[in-house]
Design a protein that fits this description.
Number of strands: 7
Strand content: 35-45%
Helix content: 25-40%
Radius of gyration: 15 Å
Number of helices: 4
CATH superfamily: Gcn5-related N-acetyltransferase (GNAT)
Distance between the termini: 27 Å
Structural class: alpha+beta
Shape: globular
CATH architecture: 3-Layer(aba) Sandwich
Strand order of the largest sheet: 1-2-3-4-5-7-6
Largest sheet: 7 strands, mixed
Length: 147
C-alpha cells in the first residue's frame, strides 16, 4: 500500500477530528489541535490517495522528543501504518539531535501500550488522574532511549 507523509495545515483539522473522535477515549478538541500547531509543534499526516489516514503531533527540545498524539484511522490499523508513522517520527527526532522520546498513554489502552513496547518503548512511571475531567484515568509514561 502506497502512503506518504506530509505536513499538516489548518485545512486538515476537520479530517483529523473525524478520526480523533472515533478512535480516542480522550480525544483532543479542535482547540487542542490548533493550539499545538500554533505552538510550533511538528504535525504530520499519513495519507493514502490524498486522504488522511493517520497523524502525529510531537515536539523536540534539546535532546528530548515528546510524542503528543499519534492516531491511525481504525480501518487502517493493524497494517503497519502506525509503525511507519512512528518510525518516521523517531528518525526525524534522531536527525534533530534527540536521544530520548517520551509519551503518555492511557493505562486502559493496552493495544497502544503493546504497540509502543514492540517498538522498544519501556514503562517509566505513571501520571495520576492525567486524562479526563469527570472520570479520571491515569497515564502510563513510556520512553524510548538511545535511538
Amino acid at each position: 500500500m502506497e502512503v506518504n507523509i506530509s505536513g499538516i495545515s489548518f485545512d486538515d483539522i476537520d479530517q483529523i477530528l473525524a478520526i480523533e473522535n472515533k478512535i480516542n477515549k480522550f480525544p483532543w478538541s479542535r482547540a487542542n489541535f490548533l493550539s499545538s500547531i500554533n505552538a510550533g509543534h511538528k504535525a504530520l499526516a499519513l495519507k493514502f490517495n490524498d486522504s488522511i489516514i493517520g497523524y502525529t503531533f510531537f515536539y523536540i527540545v534539546d535532546t528530548d522528543a515528546h510524542l503528543l498524539n499519534i492516531s491511525i484511522k481504525r480501518s487502517f490499523q493493524k497494517q503497519g501504518m502506525g509503525k511507519k508513522l512512528l518510525t518516521h517520527v523517531i528518525g526525524y527526532a534522531k536527525l534533530s539531535g534527540a536521544t530520548m522520546m517520551f509519551l503518555e498513554v492511557a493505562v486502559s489502552n493496552l493495544n497502544a501500550i503493546a504497540f509502543y513496547e514492540k517498538l522498544g518503548f519501556i514503562g517509566d512511571s505513571y501520571r495520576y488522574n492525567y486524562y479526563g475531567t469527570k472520570d479520571k484515568e491515569d497515564a502510563f509514561l513510556m520512553s524510548l532511549r538511545g535511538f
